[in-house]
């Protein structure tokens, strides 16, 4: 079975965190799966409640077959705990603290406690430990349940413990024994006469026993409660004459700042969202906690004043002068932080920590065993073989720029293709692996024209704009600056500008790319900033394809392939795919400027050659008709056409042909195979070559 909390039944931040900590307290992080506002604890047990169970606060137990894909994938990987009916009953006591409905209480009382005394093995991370038979020599009161719960004394400490010896060695074993006895462990006479390894094994069992852990938990809770009460008492004082409550703003601010792991940068407070595992801007979190504390203290003064004072104190607690976020060299995923050794290629999953100061998290779970065969085949169906590495490089570049790269890789991407060519499917894959919240959507033409557009890119992995408008861009210089450096001045409406790290990789899809300014025609620095990827195929519309193919398993596999490319990029010291600048220019111009495409496909450069003006204009009009060129891109007159082709090296002239002076364009001649030249294939089918 599984316990499902959706949504978390809390109206305050503090209550929300309390529920999350309660859930984690019953299962180790390895078998607790947190998905946005839902906490999942996959369990297997001999005892099952009758029907679907839900508490008054929204906690529900679901039966097999109703698990979300992420939970099912975790169970398939052995990421669950097998426990006895008695443990499940205790688990329900914990859930009951959130409030069970009367109906649920009645159902639970009727449920048979089958196998309440039985104990099965534990399966966790693929390791199975069967429950052994009772050993008469084992300590009295020690439950022989090898659960996933943490022992009250670490195994490493017990392994290092040594008994007293005549040689004068320090006795580190006796303090451990006394600690365990303090929490209720009892040892049979002669137990400590056994070999030291057997004694250590017994101590480990005692440290894991249910009785000992329960006594330890109660004592820790009592200490925590006493500490919490003492801390709460420091939040206020009461006037003995009037009974008026005065709040101690500094003490309240200390507590809130510690609880929320608050840091301040450029006058803005960032708090740690434990459910998301990231730092984000304060969204009334501080103010809400202040109000909750004030109400508990019986404060009846001006709450707006209290909030303002506490905010002021919190903002001054941990002030960072330099940009503090996303500097930890790891990749935050749904199930932890992936730390990659870019020398050995080793990948290690560690727990989320507030100290990491991440402002983003990938929604995908890291699964090193996920195979990429299926997702590789999908990508192979989208693009030609030479373009496939680019589709892995794009997210690899994003991860490196966000984590370890000292400077950007100065590369953006244009993805070109007709309707239903799978461009949006690739973007959906990126969204599912890297998260919609980790993507900004700023149109290419806005960069450099809207001074507020950078604010949306802060902390984002990608800036993606789908179906880019066929509007000329005029901001090439700003774009080069944006992709060449990672620290930029960010402006938000109503807030002073500040320095922030912008590491987003720019990805734009289009049917036709926008036209570029004439001044960048031969600007290699501009064109080498781009990779041009074409999706040449067509696919039938299939509404269920995303959910059927882009599954959590395949998304995890894609992440593994992306990490492979990230490691290769670090090993190379540069990107895997780096196209020639002018190759990129030619592909871009061919698809964005119909005149450029017409010239490159139908004419050859020849300094002494020439073509008749009217014949060339008529041929272009025929080309535009066949290619369905937008009317806005067709020069309306011969003079306008002459101005448009001047940038490609054509020059107007008059020459004598058959004793007549005629107007020509010099610098080019017709290709021998051009179908648009005079008396060419298409020209001969159109009257006079004019459409």
Percent of residues in helices: 25-40%
Distance between the termini: 72 Å
In the predicted model, the low-confidence regions spanning at least 5 consecutive residues are 1-7, 46-59, 98-148, 683-691
Number of H/I helices: 22
Shape type: elongated
- Looking at how many chains there are and whether they match, the oligomeric state comes to single chain
CATH third-tier fold name of the largest domain? Rossmann fold
Number of strands: 27
User: What would you say the CATH architecture of the largest domain is?
Assistant: 3-Layer(aba) Sandwich
CATH 4th-level superfamily of the largest domain? P-loop containing nucleotide triphosphate hydrolases
What radius of gyration results from the CA coordinates? 34 Å
Instruction: Return the average pLDDT rounded to an integer.
Output: 78
